Amino acid sequence: MAGYTLVKAFVLVAMLPFLHSCIGDGGSGNHSGDTRHESSAEVFESPELQGLKLYLGYCFVCHGQKGDGQGPYTAKLADPPADFTDSTYFVGKSDEELYDFISKGGVAHGKSMHMKPFGFQMTPEQIRSAIAYIRVVNRNERIDVSAESGYSAEEIYRNSCVMCHGEKGEGDGRVARMLNLAIRPLNPETLGDYSSAKLFNIVEQGFPQDTSGTRSYMPAWGGTLTEREIIDVIDHIGAFGR
What we know:
The chain has eleven helices and no strands. The protein has helices spanning 2-14, 16-23, 47-63, 95-104, 124-138, 153-160, 162-165, 174-178, 188-191, 196-205, 227-237. It folds into two domains: 1-42 and 150-242, Orthogonal Bundle (Cytochrome Bc1 Complex, Chain D, domain 2), CATH 1.10.760.10; 45-146, Cytochrome c-like domain (Cytochrome Bc1 Complex, Chain D, domain 2, Orthogonal Bundle), CATH 1.10.760. It starts with a helix and ends in a 5-residue tail after the last helix. With 242 residues, it is mostly helical. Helices cover 43% and strands 0% of the residues.
């Protein structure tokens, strides 16, 4: 199975130039403020799917890939993060209460200082989407991600990757700064250490669970992005530093 995945990734990534020439680069406007932007694409993404991508970008490091409170940063915390898979966790909690907690952070509610006030990083719509995804996790449901979202490669990167990797792939995203993580920049020197197939596998599957260091903070995007979207993102980051 691993060999099949590698071959599949190699074939897909080999198509990068062709796909890029067919669909374009999604524009080259100058954007700032991480994920706080409006998309110009015709987007077909549900709030739950958008919330999943935001969750992996902002919440994964503490709450874990599955939402069970077992993220790579958890060992450094005095208080364990909330386990969103606990079906009793949100009994009696309204969306408004969750919105206020996410927006204002833990300290404002007498909780952990490590739960930052994300109202400064996320738009109201994004916070509501994150809540919609957390509800899905709490109900032990799944999200269909088989359809293309309609986002360009640049928009996918900004929605899903910029929180850690930064606008230009320099490893200076808000989550990286918040947690003081030394993330390797996405420049030709760093990317040159990996084959195209390996890059695809890293984005799709993340690094193994026993990986140490900042690489453990890379979530698996295979259940969130389609194969074509992964290829588009790899194509996009390949231009950093050139």
